[in-house]
Specification:
alpha/beta, seven-stranded parallel beta sheet, six-stranded parallel beta sheet, 31 helices, globular
């Protein structure tokens, strides 16, 4: 879904040839085919891989946008969603604009048949102003009157002019509103005024970029002739809107000062930094895309040095990416969007930077990463960062690692992939299939390298997060060409051993693969970038709330957006069959409903008793989560909690009475009869055990996978299912089977129980809905109506919005569960 919110002063904005639009995009689902051209236009105009939150278009661009929308309801005007077309724009261009808000009225254009309305007339000098308002019929009259009253003007009845008789007030008013009088009110200035104000000048904004030894020096400031910094600083501190120097009076326009202040705060990374006449900051290469956006907003004519443009142009506009020198045999197997993904990774690699490949599950992130590794290990990118020009970044920054290990040995050419243990075999097979020229070693279990010299004999080492933690001392003393961390959500907690071990690695460039860079809050993203670009993000001070916290979050999105590449299946693989998602509502059986109510009431009493006994909030949250777990298990099958419950099963219902089990067996029978093959996911391995017993009793062939199985056994089950069409069913635990597996042999997915995070469910569904699938995939979500599971769906909506916000680099808020949220779920 995409919406463009037209501004209230739309007609006036058309006349000015500058129409601001607020863009609202929902990326929780794949975009409809008819809006793909619209998204492509936004990407081209904004120069970013994701749609911007706001964009300003000229009339030609607006016509092109309206034509691409082709009459679809994507425009919002006065709260109403409506189709819109460029014929209306052509009519609007010659129409009289309506009156705008009280402070910025639009210019007025009368038709040739009407007599012109008297305009506002401004007379005066540096010392006074005398303003004649337009006629009362003028649409800008009320706004002009309000502006003069606010500025301290008084009416002289004898001549009907509004006067301001004080040099200080006059110059301050002109500093704040001279541009408004000219551009918004179309005021006429008398020859006397022009003569008497000939000394007035606007203070200039300066933006300069120069090279330094480790990056670039960026200076932002204000100049007023030859006035020195002390004079400028004094005027700004006193909130004085003017400064006299060189025989002229320089106006310090508040809007300009606010822009300079915002730019300086962004450069300094401090929302409380005060505006100064000049602020200079050393910018490392990683900050170039963020800083360029700041400078372009401040000074639209900003022209960066050539080396600066070489580092940022391709990241801002993917269509300008140079193709990566992929070996021909591999290149022939890549889809166009995958070649673009490899080119993006290679561009970052050449700049000794890093990025997150966050493509939707099933688009081949592993293959694109192997494409980069093939370029690196075959020597095709031997020129390294020097091809981009400009100051190089040191290969081993001082802020990498923890200092607990000795200095690194000379660089080796090997690259390192770190992934969950369950994906080791998948990586080995993919590397053998697509990059057979690489010397690959799987460092895991009994087969492990023991010395740096052993690493030097490899092109690619694949290891698990757990093994990396155990062998940290070996890997931290080696500098790798590239380090890639797959399923990067495993390091979202910066305090975890996985995150610490990964941060201790030394590499010329680092990359992350994950379809879910954010699972709970924006802090997940901060943890990822601590590995990806060490020292790039400013640490958020503890205890921040409200606007200050929002400032850091907004800056985080601006800084991370250039280093996240996200594509959806609908956009880049339109040939992929449709994915249908459906909720199956299950009414609890009488026995289930009775047990659910008893457990719910007992849970509330226990929480009240704990609270009365003085339990801490942490203890209360733990108790609430425990009770929620029991309620969710009852929704699946009462047998999961019967041993812990004093309630006996009703005499007329079996102890395993479950509405979901009945619905699932009916769904399974219908799917198998129609020739479909089914994946069944659950968080509860004990539930999968119950389902296995049911299937065995019904003599239904099936495969099974959970986290307790060795990696080799898991891969064997995957192969058995993929290669044996006669097996209709695969039971998988959500955590163990939700990532990294290719199960295109199935075209039906059943989620027996909902999980808090919709991304985890989406990843599981995409085990089947991925490249190689030729049939429509149907995903069923079994939900017990009137229970906690309905409320979990509401939580999922919040999480889905958070994920979309990150990919759009737009507004987002933390989605952590409070005690109040948990108690509400129990009600």
């Amino acid at each position: 879904m995409i919406r463009f919110h037209l501004p209230p002063n739309f007609a006036a904005a058309v006349v000015r040839n500058a129409v601001p639009l607020r863009v609202e995009v929902d990326l929780s689902t794949a975009p409809a085919p008819e809006v793909v051209p619209v998204l492509a236009l936004l990407q081209r105009w904004a120069g970013t891989p994701t749609p911007p939150k706001f964009i300003q278009l000229n009339r030609a661009q607006l016509r092109e946008l309206a034509a691409a929308a082709a009459g679809h309801p994507v425009f919002v005007e006065n709260g109403t969603v409506t189709p819109w077309n460029h014929e209306r724009l052509l009519a609007t261009e010659d129409a009289r604009p309506p009156a705008a808000d009280s402070t910025r009225p639009p210019p007025v254009r009368k038709s040739r048949a009407d007599p012109p309305l008297p305009p506002m007339v401004v007379d005066g000098s540096e010392h006074f102003l005398a303003v004649t308002l337009p006629s009362r019929e003028h649409p800008g009259y009320e706004a002009a009157l309000a502006l003069l009253k606010e500025g301290g003007f008084t009416l002289e009845p004898s001549n009907r002019k509004w006067w301001l008789r004080d040099r200080h007030k006059t110059l301050n008013f002109l500093a704040s509103h001279l541009a408004t009088l000219r551009e918004r009110f179309n005021a006429e200035f008398t020859a006397n005024f022009e003569k008497n104000t000939a000394r007035l000048r606007q203070a200039d904004i300066t933006a300069e970029v120069g090279s330094t030894g480790g990056g670039y020096s960026v200076a932002i400031g204000i100049t007023a002739g030859r006035a020195n910094d002390a004079e400028l600083r004094s005027a700004i501190a006193a909130n004085r809107g003017y400064l006299e120097a060189d025989g002229n009076v320089f106006l310090l326009e508040p809007d300009r000062l606010r822009k300079v202040a915002a730019a300086q705060r962004a450069l300094a990374g401090d929302p409380n930094a005060t505006v100064t006449p000049h602020r200079s900051v050393t910018v490392p290469p990683a900050r170039i895309p963020e800083v360029q956006e700041v400078l372009e907003q401040l000074s639209p004519g900003f022209q960066p040095p050539e080396t600066w443009r070489g580092r940022t142009a391709a990241l801002r506009n993917l269509t300008t990416l140079a193709p990566a020198p992929i070996p021909p045999a591999l290149d022939r197997q890549l889809r166009p969007y995958q070649r673009l993904g490899v080119a993006w990774l290679w561009q970052l690699r050449r700049g000794e930077l890093g990025g997150i490949l966050a493509d939707e599950m099933g688009l081949g992130k592993t293959l694109q990463a192997l494409g980069l590794l093939s370029v690196v290990q075959t020597g095709s990118d031997a020129s390294g960062a020097t091809t981009l020009g400009g100051p190089p970044r040191p290969a081993s920054s001082g802020d990498r690692g923890s200092g607990r290990f000795p200095a690194p040995t000379p660089s080796v050419r090997a690259s390192l992939v770190v992934c969950p243990a369950s994906l080791l075999e998948n990586w080995r097979r993919e590397a053998a299939r697509f990059t057979p020229e690489l010397r690959v070693f799987v460092h895991h279990g009994e087969r492990r390298l023991s010395a740096v010299k052993d690493i030097e004999g490899c092109d690619l080492i694949i290891t698990s997060y757990g093994t990396l933690t155990r062998d940290q001392s070996l890997f931290a003393t080696t500098e790798f060409a590239v380090v890639i961390a797959d399923e990067a959500q495993h390091i979202k907690n910066r305090r975890s051993q996985n995150a610490a071990a990964l941060r201790a690695l030394r590499a010329q460039s680092r990359f992350l693969l994950t379809g879910t860079p954010v699972e709970n809050s924006l802090d997940d993203l901060r943890s990822l970038f601590e590995f990806l670009l060490p020292g790039y993000l400013t640490r958020v001070p503890a205890g921040l709330r409200g606007e200050e916290r929002a400032w850091y979050d907004e800056r985080l999105r601006a800084q991370t957006a250039p280093y996240i590449l996200r594509r959806t299946k609908r956009t880049v693989a339109p040939e992929l069959p449709e994915k249908i998602e459906q909720i199956v509502w299950c009414e609890l059986t009488p026995g289930q409903a009775e047990l659910y109510r008893e457990t719910q009431e007992r849970s509330e009493r226990e929480l009240i008793d704990l609270e009365a006994a003085g339990a801490t909030e942490a203890s209360l949250k733990f108790a609430a989560l425990t009770q929620l777990l029991r309620l969710r298990q009852i929704c699946c099958d009462p047998r999961l909690v019967r041993p812990h419950s004093t309630a006996a099963a009703p005499p007329d219902r079996p102890p395993g009475d479950s509405a979901k089990l009945d619905a699932f067996l009916e769904l399974l029978e219908e799917a198998v009869d129609d020739g479909h093959r089914v994946l069944v996911f659950s968080q509860f391995t004990s539930l999968l055990g119950l389902l296995r017993a049911e299937l065995d009793a019904g003599q239904v062939a099936h495969c099974y996978l959970d986290g307790a199985m060795p990696a080799r056994a898991r891969q064997a089950e995957v192969d058995r299912f993929q290669q044996t069409a006669e097996i209709p069913l695969f039971l998988l635990s959500l955590k163990a089977g939700g990532t990294g597996l290719n199960l295109t042999g199935a075209d039906v997915v059943v989620h027996f129980d909902p999980w808090w995070n919709p991304a985890a469910e989406a990843q599981a569904t995409d085990r089947a809905h991925r490249i190689g699938q030729t049939r429509t995939v149907t995903s069923y979500k079994l939900i017990a109506s009137g229970t906690v599971e309905e409320k979990v769906l509401a939580l999922q909506t919040e999480k889905r919005a958070l994920l979309a916000d990150v990919f759009e680099a737009s507004d987002a808020a933390a989605a952590k569960l409070s005690l109040a949220d948990l108690r509400d779920l129990l009600k």
